[in-house]
What does this fold into?
Amino acid sequence: MNPFEPLPMGDDEAFLRLHPSSLLFALARTLRAFLLPGIIVLVRGGENFEVWLMLLAIPAFLLALFRYITFRFRLAEREMIVRKGLIFRSERIIPYGRIQNLDYKRNLFHRLFGVCDMLVQTASGKEPEATLSVLRLKDAEAVRDQVARRKAALTDQAVALDAPPADETDRLTDAAGITESAPQEAAEERLAHASIKELALFGLITNRGWLAVAALVGLAFQFDLWPDADLFEAWADRAFGVSNFDARGKIIASVVGLIAVVLIVRVLSVFWSILTLYDFSLLQHGGELRTRFGLLTQHALTLPKHRIQLIDIESSPTSRLFKRVTLRARTAGALSDENQGTSRDWLMPVFRRGDVPELLHDVQPELENEPTDWQSISPRGARRMMKQLVLLDLAFVTPLAFALSHWWWLALPPALGLSWLIARWVVRAHGYALTANVLWFRHGLLAKKTRVIRYNKIQTVTIGESPFDRRNGHASLRIDTANSGMGQFAVTIPYLPRDEAERLRRALTDEAERRDFVW
It folds into this structure.
């Protein structure tokens, strides 16, 4: 019996189980969550609550065992079916046409057992529709291939409903001399790749080492792991001949400590980048994009081309110094793992700025090169922003002047001058442009971002006016796509003259109506 063939509903034998090693992974998660903190506390001494939490390891593992026994899934003709529960049984049906991504990740232990965790994602929300943990790697690949084939077959069936009759099709193909051939599996093509040198540069640019530092500081606070102050004094005495931490010793220790922290953070950031994003590759397979990366924990993520809602080109001051950018492709319902320093919507975490147009054309062939005739927002927006910054300056300087010294009032003129420059720079950084198929929008003073939205992805275009907008003859234009969250917009163009906002709204609405919306 082939478990991936469509079988009658309700047949329990037709459903697949998770891999038996899922119990070991569940046990490992239980140990990490409950037993490990308690063991650390017992070793260091004390009666923290982590010791009592160790008792929860038993019901947690029993719950994981129950999940393994009751969890089933199978691939039917038109949908994936996920069943779980024993007394209160639930059965989730996920149509293939709604499946947006089938991603999997593997850490060292997954690779040791030849298994992986698979996430089944749709555009319905922030959580995956189903998590298949744990599957054999070859079964995960089989699921991925079967879903892709059946999605393609269902699409072909839908197209066939609008096609001419079979005899008419045969007559046309014969007249044209077309010979039918069996469909061939699309080859996987690599569009871009990040070398170790590029990843090391990305680590220096992004400075993600602070994540590791924050984790270590949190661990030290949680379990009281701070070393004794006498160790610092002894080290300073041996290294610099400084004892008792007098004024001179404190200055030397502060400078050396600051330099050491900066260097350690940079080294950790480079280490994180290479470890997490090792061999980052952007691949094209048929109508979808795939990214693969990771040295210890390997990720394989999918980005269907037709579901890309917008593309971001991001750069920081440091990345611009090295002529590098980060490329992201936002899809509806996409999940990010930013708390671990990675993001599933990366096209390329680091890429040469000059090669961006060629890569964008590979990803979305209808995209044109970045325009040169950018339209700016109203210069009067700088005055409005300046008023807000003046209030912030007064709120900062006034308490200091009254509480500490009236000399603080001397800081107000430089602060106002800096605020005026910032307001002008921020307004100048905003711009938009319309090309044949795309809306371009850029903003940002230090961290710059250019957002690219195809007209056939636009869902709504709204004009917003606050009382201050109406007083100044301004309006904000808000463009929404399928990936925007509640109360969020893909693009908000502020400080537009009211008549210009109306003209732009009509132009975008007309362009969106002329094109078939593709989800």
In short: The chain is about 45% helix and 25% strand. Residues 1-13, 168-184, 335-341 have pLDDT under 50 and may be disordered. Residues 247-277 form the longest helix (31 residues).
